[in-house]
Amino acid sequence: MTQFILHYLITHSAPYFCPPLTKVDVEHFCANDNELASDLDKERKDFSRLYEWLIENGHPPFQLVLRSFSCFC
User: For residue 31, is it within any domain?
Assistant: First the structure.
């Protein structure tokens, strides 16, 4: 099996500690979709678990690039 180190993860979502930290920009979408807010919370939780797994498995902290935000983890 080939070993690799992940240095960058580019995604549209992020762990809980990266911006945006509120849903202000999507509140109008949530008004039309009863499940959107909980879907977004689950997605954040999933990415947080992925980030923690990567760190625990020897990948160095990496940079998350989010739309106009950057989170250096």
Answer: yes
| 47 occurs within a structural domain | yes
Burial of 73 (0-12, 13-18, 19+ CB in 10 A): middle
Total domains present in the chain: 1
In this predicted model, what pLDDT tens digit does every residue of 1-58 receive, in sequence order? 557 787 777 777 778 888 788 888 889 999 999 999 999 999 999 988 988 888 888 8
Q: ∠ CA 14-16-22 to the nearest 5 degrees? A: 90
In a domain, residue 1? The reply is no
The label of the residue with tokens 């989010």 reads 66
Q: Is 46 inside any structural domain?
A: yes
3-state secondary structure of 65: strand
